[in-house]
Amino acid sequence: MHLVRCGSGDPILFIHGMPTSSHLWSQIIALLCVHFDCFAIDLPGMGDTPQIAYDADFLRKIAEEIDQIRLASGIEKWHVVGHDAGSVVAVHYAKYFPQHVARMALLAPALFPELRPFYLLEILRKPVVGEVLAPFVRFAFWKIAMRRAIARLDRNAQTIGNFYKPFAGLMGPWRFMKLLRWGDPALVLGEVPRFLPTLPMQTLVFHGRDDAAIPEEFASRAARLLPNASMVTVDAGHFIPLDQPESVAARLSDFFTAYARDYLSATSLASV
Questions:
Q1: What is the CATH number of the domain that holds 19?
Q2: Which pairing describes strands 78-83 and 101-107: parallel, antiparallel, or unpaired?
Q3: Does any domain span residue 151?
Q4: pLDDT lower than 50: segments of the chain
Q5: CA 81/CA 101 separation, integer angstroms
Q6: CA dihedral for 159, 176, 38, 231, sign (positive or negative)
């Protein structure tokens, strides 16, 4: 996986959703890397990471790849942050490697089997129809839907270009189509509601008040199922890290700094 890293201090892993890239976090990382060691990955088929085939064990494989980054970086525990489908990767990593997750934050979590893909993207998931309409859907999604979804376009135009890069060129529409044929949400996400209550780490769940992609019920349900979770609602659309980078960075900084403070306090008490 392509990796962006900067800063020093307690480590944080940032996982983007679909179809974005590590660039989603660039504004937040710029604010946090003064006090934290920030890692941001590009998931397969997005950003600068090559596409791989999906299979029934895909999420476990991604979790194992992420843990190889942790091992290579000499990290015992890190905080994990996910947005959209990146939240799915985050909770699966926490499921397979809970001993290495300090705290977790989930933004616009697309976690549940009732998830319904955006109607334009659903077209690409249909055999034959998707192949034929891929160029038209790519144009409509990136030139119209994405530009409307990211309201502060003047600030985020470069970000949209970065997200779009893997799907540019003559074969880009079909690379986009293959990325979106990742499986039926009812099957891929079917186990998530059952294992969320087993994840012990403190978690902060973010919901954008104007999010048209992920319903508020997904965020509140995640906060209810995770045993040590709380939820915050922010004045943002679906792309919370782009709409409210300063606010999100401040909340994450406070949340993760509190872990370090609590850990030091517990260590001090244990040594008495």
A1: 3.40.50.1820
A2: parallel
A3: no
A4: 153-154, 268-269, 272
A5: 10
A6: positive
**What is the count of structural domains for the chain?**
1
Q: What is the pLDDT of residue 264?
A: 58
Within a domain: 101: yes
The answer to whether residue 165 sits within a structural domain is no
Longest CA pairwise span in the chain (Å): 69
- Count how many Cα atoms sit within 13 Å of the Cα of residue 30 in the half-sphere of its side chain: 9
Give me the pLDDT at residue 244, please.
Answer: 93
What is the SS3 assignment for 194-224? HHHHHCCCCEEEEEECCCCCCCHHHHHHHHH
What pLDDT is attached to residue 122?
85
Q: What is the pLDDT of residue 157?
A: 66
pLDDT 10s digits, 192-242: 999 999 999 999 999 999 998 899 999 999 999 999 999 999 999 999 999
* 109: preceding bond cis by omega (within 30 degrees): no
- Amino acid in the structure at residue 146: M
Question: CA-CA distance, 253 to 12, in Å (whole number)?
Answer: 10
- The residue range of the domain holding 64 is 3-116+185-271
In a domain, 129, yes or no: no
pLDDT on residue 16: 97
Distance (Å, whole) CA 133 – CA 135: 6
C-beta neighbour count of 46 within 10 angstroms? 26
The number of CA neighbours under 13 Å toward the Cβ of 157 is 3
